[in-house]
Design goal:
Helix content is 34%, strand content 27%. The relative contact order is 0.21. The radius of gyration is 29 Å and the shape is rod-shaped. The longest helix has 25 residues, at 34-58. By secondary structure, the protein is of the alpha+beta class.
Length: 150
């Protein structure tokens, strides 16, 4: 229960305050605003387009400098898609190639010993998840007015 001083109570015209306990039933009431629904849909579309464009720019930078491992690529993808991570499905594709590497230093000769080594090349593929967008659009434009959920 919140305490109110007598002077404040007179100035606010409050005689007494009661604490009301919410019921156990979880219900909420709200209304849908058409203009807000359109703005949210447009904003979501812009965010998805921006993330798609960022992934397009990231794609040629793979397998160079700081983007050579799957972990580094995943971090870069998550950074660019942080707002729409649930709306875009990104897949990192690994291509493995076997190469021969000379074991000892010097020029190659018929006596040279070679070792087989795996070389990895990564690429990314992504697509916009229509199902996730449909799920997110169900909540567009809804204003919760009253809820008794705690």
């Amino acid at each position: 229960m919140q305490k109110v001083h007598a002077k404040k109570a007179k100035s606010l015209n409050i005689k007494h305050m009661k604490q009301v306990k919410p019921k156990k039933v979880s219900a909420s009431y709200g209304f849908i605003a058409a203009q807000k629904k359109k703005r949210i849909k447009k904003r979501r579309h812009k965010r998805v387009e921006k993330a798609s464009q960022a992934l397009e720019e990231l794609s040629p930078k793979l397998n160079k400098y700081h983007l050579k491992t799957k972990k580094e690529i995943r971090a870069a993808v998550d950074k660019r898609c942080k707002d729409v991570n649930d709306l875009i499905d990104v897949k990192i594709v690994t291509e493995r190639k076997q190469i021969k590497v000379k074991v000892s230093p010097g020029r190659p000769s018929y006596k040279s010993v070679y070792k087989n080594k795996w070389q990895y090349k990564y690429s990314i593929q992504w697509q916009v998840s229509k199902q996730a967008i449909a799920e997110a659009s169900k909540k567009d434009g809804i204003f919760p007015l009253i809820t008794n959920a705690s």
